[in-house]
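Re: the 189-residue chain
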Amino acid sequence: MTGAGVPAASLEQRFRDLLDREEIRQVMYSYARGTDRCDPDLIADAYHEDAWDDHGNFRGGRDVVVDTIVGRGAAARASMHHLGNVLIELLGDTAHVETYFMACQDLEIDGARFTRMRAGRYLDRFERRDGRWRVAHRTVVDDWSRLDEVVATAPSVTDECHRGTRDRTDPSYGLSDFSRLRSGRSERI
C-alpha cells in the first residue's frame, strides 16, 4: 500500500496508462503538424506500415495518405489543424481513440482567396507494436465544413510579421524538428 491507501501495483498501472495516453496524444499532435507543414515523415510516422485510412474522399494505406495529403497541400497557402477532445480507451496493446479536429486553410480558387473550415473527428484504432503507439486503422468523420471568401484581412498582420510555410522552412523548424518525439525518445537529455 502507498500512503494514499492505493496498492503500489495499481499506481504503477495508472502511471503506465497515463504515459500511454500521452504518447498517443503526441502522435496525434505530430500528425497534425505534419499535415500543416506537408512533412511526409511526420505524417508517415503516425501510422503503422500496414495501416488503413478511410478519409472519405480518399482511402488507402500509409503511403496513399502521405502522398494525398502532401500532394493536396500545394493547393492551400496555409493550413492549421486544431485538435480538441481526445477520448482514449486503452485495451492492452490496442486503444480506441476519438479525436475532434478543426482544420482551417487559406485557399485560392479562380483567383479569389477563401478560408476553408472543416470540423470532424478521427476515429482511430491505435496499436502498440515494438513499444510504440501508432494508428492501425482510421476513419475520418466530417461533422461540418464551410468555405468563405476572404473580403478583408487583419491590417495588423503585415509583411514584417513572421509567416508560416507548408514545408521545412517554417519558423518552427528553427526551434526543433521534434524528431526525439517520433523516435520515442521524449525524455530529457
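The radius of gyration is 19 Å.
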